[in-house]
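Re: the 389-residue chain
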Amino acid sequence: MEENFNMLAKCLFGFESILAKELRNLGAQEVKEGVRNVKFKGDKGFMYKANLALRTAIRILVPIHTFKIYDEDDLYDGLKKIRWEKYLDIKNTFAINSSVHSDNFTNSHYVSLKSKDAIVDYFRKRYQERPSIDIKHPDIQFNIHIQKETCTLSLDSSGESLHKRGYKSDTNIAPINEVLAAGLILMSGYDGSQHFIDPMCGSGTFLIEAAMIANNIPVNINRNEFAFEKWKDFDDNLFDIINDSLLKKVRNSTQKIIGYDKAPSAVRKAINNVANASLEEFIQIDQQNFFDSEKPVDGKALIVFNPPYGERLEINVPVFYKEIGNTLKQSYQDTDAWFITSDFENGIKNVGLRASRKIKVFNGKLECRFVKYEMYKGSKKEKFQVKDQ
């Protein structure tokens, strides 16, 4: 049997507990939450599974060496001591990404360049040849993380960020990141057992992520490549076994997943992306203005959407958010409505409803709130208490 080893899954701020739950459900061992990351243990097959199935992970790193450093010479010398032949051949291309949280190192780009020099000099000294750099599509990708005086070198098993699922060929002006969308849906409590509605669906990201959750579809099943497929110890047969085992757990949800948008161009893009994800049978998309709409299903429903913030789309924010509240109140009873926004003053305050939850999240660098409004069936009373998290 393959031995277990340490790994680290990176995530967005605020989604550590959701990612930890995902990892435990997949079968990870020794799961420990950090800040924007979750540490865990598993074998090679589990590393493949984590990349294929984790919805809220940005990338999966495998730490291979840790050492103390106090200046750039320590970094260079420490890296030159590593037996690089174990991970990299002269004919391979490589790239280095760095992140620094240290008083001694303040420039991550410089750390990457210094690390590259150490690797290149190592090979030149021993073989009079050197591997080449390829920033866009390297054979092997390394990650350097400096925390105070500790430097950790990791292999990046994912390559491109795991938010690049492989289904999104068309986007709008302000698309939402796929990992963020999946995290918000899971944060809302959605598991496929109720109807799901995105009334401002844009390019369809929420709809697609919801359909994959509802049907237990591995989130990166459409992805063309992972970085670990170029590693020396890549096991093609094991990867196929893991892939097949995940596909056997796919289920068929009977609840509706419905999206609409007032812009014909957005509807076309959403339909194309849904087709790319092969989810047409689970998702219904129509052209419809949310403010003129009525709840399209009977029974309890969950609404999750990403309205304009006024950042990249020009709108009259107070009026727009007031209309959101009016539409929810008048036309969407018996629903739990969630949306994300960065506009606290002109946005949330003008909805005219009392949020039952407000959760701090980030959309890129924008600090946002993910807010919940509980629309009771047949009742116009607001019985809500704000819960800040």
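Residues 380-387 have pLDDT under 50 and may be disordered.
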